[in-house]
Structures are given as structure tokens and as C-alpha cells.
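Hi R.,

Here's the chain you asked about this morning:
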Amino acid sequence: MPDASDTAAVVREIHKAAGRGDAGRLRALLRRHPGLANDTLAPSGPTPLLTAAGYGRLACVTALLEAGSTVEAADNMHGTELHYAAMRGHAHCLPTLLAAGADVEAVNSQRRTPLGVAAHGGHAGCAGADVNAMGNCGETALSCAASWSAWGSEASLRVLIGAGADASDANARGETPLHRAAGSGNEAAARVLLAAGAAADAADRREG
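And the predicted structure, written out as C-alpha cells:
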């Protein structure tokens, strides 16, 4: 039986292979050490599957799932594999994760679904969750996308609206996505929202 230092070294190699996309090396390690498919480098840290999903290494995601890696193994911020992949725009990994049972409605420590983090990052291709779900501050994915002018938000807005997002849904302060776009100076996002039927005369609670 290997000692703790030997095991830690193998776990490091598994994570390294998962992050680099070396599926051949990863499969070889998992064949020799099948019980380490879910081991982390630190308490509450990412699993190899989270690492592979975060780097968009689809072949490694597949190898880990075949080796018994647990889907929905959240890190210390409660981010799942779908969050990791969606946050970084790795849409090609999502179907495999979803087929393995990943939950599109899972929320992280900020109460954001995978769709929410995708919209926040401007990754229009990573959709699939409740488009009107709110984060812990009462913001929807549409509001997040509207407020980030530098992150490709117009494309994300179009995807979210096409998926049924409410262009006039207000947050706890009465601010609509249009308010958020205007507040961040995002004129392109404002045009998309107006074209989708957002009310131009909606007042937030500070305006009465």
C-alpha cells in the first residue's frame, strides 16, 4: 500500500494530466490508481474532474467520468463542473457533463447557476439553466450580462433573451437590466434590451 506522500504525488500527477489535457497519461494513472479519481490537492479544493472541466479538456472529462469521477463534486466556492466549464466558455464540455447527470440548476456560493456565470463572463454558448434565476443579490443572468460592457455581453443578452429571459425583470432595488446597462454605460446592451421590449420608462425604487 503506498504511503501518504506517494499518494499525494500520484494525485498531483492526475490533476496535472487533467489540466494539460493529456488524456493518455490520465487514463494510465487512473488504471493504476482507480481509487484516486475524486481526490483533491487540498481540503475542499477542486477534483480532477473540476480541473478538466475548467480547462475545457473534454477527453479528460470523459476519461474521468469513465473512471468513476463524481459529478457535482463542488469546490470550496460550491462551483460544480458545469460552473467551471460555463464560466470559462467551454461549451463543448457541457453535453458530456449533462449526460453524466450534472445539475443545470446548481448554484455556487454567489447563488449563480452555470448559466449565470456564463452570462457574467460573456460566454453566449453556455446556456441551459433557469434564465430568470436570481443570484444572492437579486440579480438575474440578464442583469449581470447587461452590466458588463467589456465582456461580450450583447451576444450573451441575445442568447438569454432567446431562451426566455425577461428583459424587464427588476432586481430587489427595482432596477431592470436596462437600468444596469445604462448604469455601466453599455449602450450596445441597452439597444439589445430595448429591441427585446424592455420598458424604457421603468423607474427604479430610488426614482419612485
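Residues 42 and 169 are 40 Å apart (CA to CA).

Let me know if you need anything else.
M.
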